[in-house]
Amino acid sequence: MIVNQTKENPLFIGIDGGGSKCRATIYSAEDGVIGTGVAGRANPLHGLSQTFESIQLSTELALKDAGMAIGDSKDLVAGLGLAGVNVPRLYQDIVNWEHPFADMYVTSDLHTACIGAHKGGEGAVIITGTGSCGYANVDGKFISLGGHGFALGDKGSGAWLGLKAAEQSLLHLDGFAERTILTEKLLNHFKVNDALGIVENLAGKSSSVYAKLARIVLECANQQDEVAQAIVKEGAAYISELARKLFEINPPRFSMIGGLAEPLAPWLDKDVVTKLSPTLAPPELGATYFARQQFGGKAS
């Protein structure tokens, strides 16, 4: 190993779990990446067993990448930023897990994303990926908005864009809505010929399946398809309003992260875009900062 670790000076692993994937990164004391691994989704709203499995697998892959043994997880202090743990019952389920780490500290993916985006400083962040949510932390005040999960919220997210595209395509195919090239794109995407084919591929599926359609919606909107443009504009208007609510406590920095942060930016209101700052570090490093703080407080 390239680092020396002791119980007083352990290695930290930051884990960022969301609706599509779980990324784990082991960091040195100087924030250098030692090893990283990516596994499937880790949102306890969609199943605890899947969440634990993804955390474990991403950790094992990170250890392997670092040239360490799987059993070395018992020497790591973990910081977990997970979607869904804003629900108290799910937070408790995660905290009570017989985890493989020396210590484990849990908070929301929003919190760790914000810490990472501003490299430990105060600020605001909006996540626009499979889901959507916003968080700001300034002078001990914090605002947490959205993050209620697919079907109940997540407006402007990848899953929401995909859902709206499917709804409009099915209405078009049934003769209740205007023509849209979204219909042809979705039929081609699923390799089917009719409405039932789309339904068969989407009914009862997870948010991550819907989120895969987001790029199609944005592509059609950029091709001037009016139906797709209306969907994207509605989602972007919500994200813009979400940002303004975060601005109410005057965050010194504001960033957007997630798979849709860049492609959605041109559709946001100008007053929001002018306040955008680049993210300084990934959510996994934010999770590590959180764990270091909690571990240091425990030690003192």
UniProtKB/TrEMBL annotation:
<dbReference type="InterPro" id="IPR002731">
    <property type="entry name" value="ATPase_BadF"/>
</dbReference>
<dbReference type="Pfam" id="PF01869">
    <property type="entry name" value="BcrAD_BadFG"/>
</dbReference>
<dbReference type="InterPro" id="IPR043129">
    <property type="entry name" value="ATPase_NBD"/>
</dbReference>
<dbReference type="InterPro" id="IPR052519">
    <property type="entry name" value="Euk-type_GlcNAc_Kinase"/>
</dbReference>
<protein>
    <submittedName>
        <fullName>ATPase</fullName>
    </submittedName>
</protein>
<feature type="domain" description="ATPase BadF/BadG/BcrA/BcrD type">
    <location>
        <begin position="13"/>
        <end position="263"/>
    </location>
</feature>
